[in-house]
């Protein structure tokens, strides 16, 4: 039903989905036919003698395709045949017969609704009047006989079908009432909107008095109603989802599920449609709504006096519990709440009750997935109708609109829902309509390589430097005297060039492909080269394989292909194949240094890891009860609690990162490798530093002494000079400068200055000369540069150095110049000379982090330094910059930085590898467990099973060493148990829960029901089970003679459930020499061929 107030035009499409529609308004109703093959509209017939038309409805009766119900302002309803005027009978052309449905009291007819399931039912909504109901249900089947003569020929017998059930019950409407009237309702209310539910004959929705949304059940004479307080001026039912209903009132649209009417599924206004670019209109009123009959969840909405129609995409969604996914996130640090795919609610072990996915998820929940609008038609629209599409998978939606002047226009909207699926192997599939494209992330060249096939670079020919370096620096011997390579400096030259997150194919809708031409070539020296993989040929459509440009129409596909290849998942896959792993720290640093897709900082953190572990863990990281392994600058400066005395007493070694990797030659470290060819954590001698720490250490808890001992390990000639300012933590400052890889000794600084000048970094050399108050040398360094801009900077610098002629004008000019300069080192030294405040210099974020930290430890006072470290950690953590680990180390605070790093980049690989060194060996963190499991699943998804196993082996060796050193309990389970023996009587595990049993106390009875365990089917002796705790303790005890032998093993057939001692079962089937003696089970009358499964 469509209301038609006064002369305002209204449009209604054929309910039988034919290419016909009707336009009505005022006193005229016209029938049109749309010819899609000719893109034309043809007029069929009209009725212009209809006075005072208020509303009309089109009957869905299959026997009459031109039957209309017209509501008048007097309340009278007329049933007419609109095409009767096209045919002449007995030389007379008339408007045809009319069947009238009278009303007792005159009042306006507001709305009409035919029942789709049974077109003989007609609901009429009227204004209220005293003593007369406003809702009337009619049965118009008897009117058919009065309407047939106006049409040539009678409807065939096939059109006469049995009426569907259940029928609407006839109520007592009074003795004088029309026999066609079935029921009457709402005696004191105004009916503003009506609609029968699809596929239902007795459920009627109504908007009452603009205050109530009411559901009538018409199966009984006294109708049962359900009331919901809601303003309703229009109702739209969904043919695809019959239980879903939309209603509008004022400027609000509400989505309901009739099975749960008290609570709406969704409520929205035009303010929720800012994505389509249209600004909300103040005081807007929704005029008409309609569900698409071909698009699931597509709702068209038109506002009064609007020049466009808006489409809302309403999709089903399950309610997810966000408490777990967000509990490690600070919403104040981000404008939009984003959730990492590795930080979703999992049902992993260790999560308590209340953690994970909600037990109840409402399947009928809906969300607004998208919104789009038609073009602006220039003139205000009066009405619209969605055109049914004969093709079930069309890529467009068609809409017929009519403006207030009666002009018709058919508009085509390209709104095909785009479905995207990303396989675990990196292939992106995008489908729209009947077309589908597959964008492979990589070319499948057969079986993937194995970990031992990767070329692991563990040599020092091309080392990874860290710090400023110097001739006598601990890291400079056979290393780059510059410390940081030019690549590192270039990466930090301007952080504004960095992207906050590697883009993902999940955002392809918002990716302007035309503006992003694909790269035609890659550097041949990079190990991350991708080749154009062959597209998978589909029957409908496939992505092109050749390189192309937007000019020939193929650039869009190529650009999207580039997005898939450059996604972080593909980067992680390539890294894994190239040997990125736990045991290859040097290789990791070199590999990520040439990674063209990663953001700056990954290579630097691996380089710092090598550098710091050489200072902290050789020969031992545990001094005076403090474990310095994996600590950062924050722990060195503020201190941290010592280990418990009990732990110190029983610990003889500790977990640390590979220390021998710091040596200039790795031949000794890699000489004894495992069978895979890749050095494992325990194969490298420096991984586990031997300690002579004992409980009787008289210096237990002396942190200053421990830091002093760390300094004493270094060559005195290589120690950085003591800062000139007064401090209470001189040792901490000196060692922190060592960890920063920075030395301002004359020899080291002179060597670094020469290196920088040779590399064209004259401003960097001049900056540090200014910091050390060597102004003359700074001016000379700038004047030796070939860049004339540096000569101009030298002139400005000469006017600012102490002793020069300075004026307020010169100072003001320098401050304005600092804002305009691009070189961070020039800005830093001019800032220091003008403000004399090191805090202003540290605000220069374009300087590399380790240089800013070196400035802080060299020049800031104690209190200012502590405050700066705290602010820097918070800043780096909120932005997900992994270099923050230099300050926090691999500590619980470092896990917060890794979490935000994963959220910003999606690089769960690096987070999993770094966290494996300390979790759970040093502390437990649920996030680290998730990263590791997510990375394992990613490798399995790429079918890199050997690489996943290699990752598990590295983690297992670290955990095994932690158990041996006492950092983890002996009963610690590295992986969940896959095999469990249960009692046949009580179904409880036969392994005792207590860990006090010894190998001599073997279990022969069930600890749950105390019944004897089964007997060996060969020797008939009761089976004995060695408790796992006892077995593990004996195997870890080097003095124990216990060994894992086949005598203790048990074999049980999974078919017949018979078994026994492994040695006896093997001898039964194979004999002593391996010759088959028996083929069937040793149990009498059992014909199971157990030996075939061995």
The separation of the N and C termini measures 75 Å
Helix content: 25-40%
Biggest sheet record: 5 strands, antiparallel
The count of strands amounts to: 35
Strand content: 15-25%
Q: Helix/strand-derived class?
A: alpha+beta
Shape: flat
Number of helices in the DSSP assignment: 28
The strand line-up of the biggest sheet is 1-6-7-8-9
Mean pLDDT: 76
Segments where pLDDT lies below 50 for 5+ residues? Answer: 150-159, 320-363, 470-553, 652-696, 995-999
Give the C-alpha Rg: 41 Å
Keywords: Repeat, WD repeat
Family: Belongs to the WD repeat mio family.
Pfam family, one: MIOS_WD40
Domain MIOS-like alpha-solenoid: 727-859
Would you kindly provide a written description of the structure presented here, covering whatever features stand out?
- Pfam families: MIOS_a-sol, MIOS_WD40, zinc_ribbon_16.
- One of its GO terms (cellular component) is cytoplasm.
- InterPro entries: MIOS/Sea4 (IPR037593), MIOS_a-sol (IPR049092), WD40/YVTN_repeat-like_dom_sf (IPR015943), WD40_repeat_dom_sf (IPR036322), Zn_ribbon_mio (IPR031488).
- Residues 727-859 form the MIOS-like alpha-solenoid domain.
- Keywords: Repeat, WD repeat.
- The chain has 1094 residues and is an alpha+beta fold.
- Among the domains are: 420-461 and 497-585, no CATH class; 760-860, no CATH class; 997-1094, no CATH class.
- Helix content is 26%, strand content 17%.
- The chain is built from 28 helices and 35 strands.
- The protein has a 5-stranded antiparallel beta sheet, with no helix packed on it.
- Helix 17 (808-820) runs antiparallel to helix 18 (824-835) and helix 25 runs antiparallel to helix 26.
- The two termini are 75 Å apart.
- The relative contact order is 0.06.
- The model is unreliable at 150-159, 320-363, 470-553, 652-696 and 995-999 (pLDDT under 50).
């Amino acid at each position: 039903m469509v209301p038609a107030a006064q002369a305002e035009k209204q449009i209604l499409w054929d309910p039988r989905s034919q290419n016909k529609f009707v336009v009505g308004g005022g006193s005229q109703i016209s029938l049109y036919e749309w010819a899609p093959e000719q893109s034309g509209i043809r007029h069929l017939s009209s009725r212009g003698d209809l006075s005072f038309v208020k509303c009309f409805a089109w009957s869905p009766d299959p026997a009459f395709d031109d039957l209309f119900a017209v509501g008048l302002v007097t309340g009278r309803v007329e049933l007419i045949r609109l095409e009767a005027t096209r045919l002449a009978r007995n030389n007379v052309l008339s408007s045809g017969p009319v069947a009238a449905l009278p009303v007792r009291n005159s009042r306006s007819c507001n709305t009409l609704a035919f029942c789709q399931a049974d077109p003989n039912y007609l609901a009429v909504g009227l204004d209220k009047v005293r003593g007369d109901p406003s809702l009337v249900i009619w049965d118009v089947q008897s009117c058919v006989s009065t309407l047939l003569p106006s049409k040539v020929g009678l409807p065939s017998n096939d059109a006469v079908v049995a009426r569907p059930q259940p029928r609407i019950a006839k109520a007592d409407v009074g003795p004088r009432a029309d026999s066609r009237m079935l029921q009457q309702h709402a005696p004191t209310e105004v009916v503003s909107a009506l609609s029968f539910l699809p596929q239902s004959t007795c459920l009627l929705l109504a908007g009452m008095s603009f205050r109530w949304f009411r559901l009538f059940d018409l199966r009984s004479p006294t109708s049962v109603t359900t009331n919901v307080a809601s303003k309703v001026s229009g109702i739209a039912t969904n043919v695809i989802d019959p239980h879903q209903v939309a209603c509008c009132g004022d400027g609000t649209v509400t989505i309901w599920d009739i099975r749960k009417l008290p609570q709406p599924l969704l409520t929205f206004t035009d303010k929720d449609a800012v994505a389509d670019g249209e600004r909300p209109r103040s005081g807007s009123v929704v005029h008409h709504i309609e569900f698409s009959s071909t698009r699931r969840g597509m709702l068209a909405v038109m506002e009064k006096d609007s020049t466009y129609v808006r489409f809302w995409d309403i999709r089903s969604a399950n309610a997810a519990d966000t408490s777990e996914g967000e509990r490690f996130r600070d919403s104040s640090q981000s404008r939009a709440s984003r959730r990492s795919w590795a930080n979703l609610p999992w049902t992993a072990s260790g999560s308590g009750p209340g953690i994970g996915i909600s037990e109840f998820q409402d399947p009928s929940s809906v969300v607004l997935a998208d919104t789009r609008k038609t073009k602006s038609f220039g003139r205000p629209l009066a009405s619209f109708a969605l055109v049914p599409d004969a093709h079930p998978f069309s890529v467009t939606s068609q809409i017929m609109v009519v403006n207030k002047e009666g002009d018709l226009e058919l508009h085509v909207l390209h709104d095909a829902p785009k479905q995207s699926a990303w396989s675990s192997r990196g292939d992106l599939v995008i489908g729209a309509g009947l077309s589908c494209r597959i964008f492979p992330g990589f070319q499948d060249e057969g079986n993937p390589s194995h970990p031992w096939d990767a070329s692991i670079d563990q040599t020092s020919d091309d080392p990874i430097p860290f710090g400023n370096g110097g001739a006598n620096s601990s890291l400079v011997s056979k290393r780059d005297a510059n410390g940081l390579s030019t690549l590192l400096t270039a990466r930090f030259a301007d952080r504004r060039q960095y992207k906050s997150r590697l883009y993902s194919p999940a955002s392809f809708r918002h990716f302007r492909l035309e503006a992003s031409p694909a790269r035609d070539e890659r550097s041949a020296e990079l190990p991350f080269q991708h080749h154009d993989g062959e597209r998978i040929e589909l029957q409908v459509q496939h992505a092109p394989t050749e390189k192309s440009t937007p000019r020939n129409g193929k650039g869009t596909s190529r650009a999207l292909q580039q997005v898939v290849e450059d996604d972080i998942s593909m980067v992680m896959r390539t890294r894994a194949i190239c040997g990125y792993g736990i045991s290859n720290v040097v290789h990791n640093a070199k590999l990520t240094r040439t990674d063209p897709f990663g953001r700056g900082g990954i290579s630097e953190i691996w380089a710092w890891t090598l550098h710091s572990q050489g200072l902290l863990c050789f020969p031992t990281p545990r001094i005076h009860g403090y474990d310095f392994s994996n600590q950062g600058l924050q722990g060195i400066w503020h201190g941290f609690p010592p280990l418990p005395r009990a732990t110190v007493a029983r610990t003889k070694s500790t977990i640390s990162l590979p220390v021998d990797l710091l040596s200039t030659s790795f031949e000794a470290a890699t000489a004894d490798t495992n069978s895979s060819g890749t050095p494992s954590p325990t194969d490298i001698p420096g991984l586990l530093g031997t300690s002579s720490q004992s409980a009787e250490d008289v210096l237990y808890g002396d942190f200053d002494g421990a830091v002093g001992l760390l300094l004493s390990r270094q060559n005195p000639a290589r120690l950085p000079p003591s800062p000139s300012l007064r401090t209470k933590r001189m040792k901490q400052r000196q060692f922190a400068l060592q960890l920063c890889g920075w030395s301002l000794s004359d020899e080291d600084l002179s060597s670094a200055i020469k290196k920088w000048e040779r590399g064209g970094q004259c401003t960097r050399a001049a900056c540090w000369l200014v910091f050390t108050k060597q102004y003359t040398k700074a001016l000379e360094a700038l004047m030796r540069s070939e860049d004339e801009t540096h000569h101009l900077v030298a002139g400005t610098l000469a006017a600012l150095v102490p002793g020069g002629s300075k004026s307020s004008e010169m100072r003001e000019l320098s401050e304005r110049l600092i804002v305009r300069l691009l070189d961070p080192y020039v800005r830093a030294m001019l800032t220091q000379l003008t403000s004399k405040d090191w805090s202003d210099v540290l605000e220069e974020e374009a300087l590399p982090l380790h240089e800013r930290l070196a400035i802080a430890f060299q020049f800031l006072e104690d209190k200012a330094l502590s405050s700066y470290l705290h602010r820097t950690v918070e800043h780096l953590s909120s932005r997900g910059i992994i270099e923050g680990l230099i300050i926090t180390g691999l500590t619980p605070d470092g896990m917060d930085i890794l979490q935000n790093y994963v959220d910003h980049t999606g690089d769960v690989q690096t987070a999993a590898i770094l966290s494996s060194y300390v979790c759970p060996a040093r502390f437990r963190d649920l996030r680290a467990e998730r990263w590791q499991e997510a990375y394992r699943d990613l490798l399995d998804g790429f079918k890199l099973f050997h690489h996943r196993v290699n990752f598990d082996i590295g983690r297992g060796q670290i955990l095994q060493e932690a158990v041996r050193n006492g950092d983890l309990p002996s009963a610690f389970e590295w992986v969940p148990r896959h095999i469990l023996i249960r009692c046949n009587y009580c179904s409880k595990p036969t392994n005792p829960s207590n860990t006090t049993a010894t190998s001599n106390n073997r279990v022969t009875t069930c600890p749950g029901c105390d019944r004897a365990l089964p007997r060996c089917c060969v020797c008939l002796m009761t089976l004995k089970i060695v408790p796992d705790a006892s077995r593990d303790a004996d195997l870890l005890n080097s003095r124990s003679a216990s060994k894992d032998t086949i005598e203790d093993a048990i074999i049980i057939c999974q078919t017949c459930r018979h078994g026994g001692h492994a040695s006896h079962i093997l001898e039964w089937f194979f004999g002593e020499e391996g010759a088959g003696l028996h083929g069937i089970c040793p149990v009498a009358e059992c014909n199971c061929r157990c030996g075939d499964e061995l």
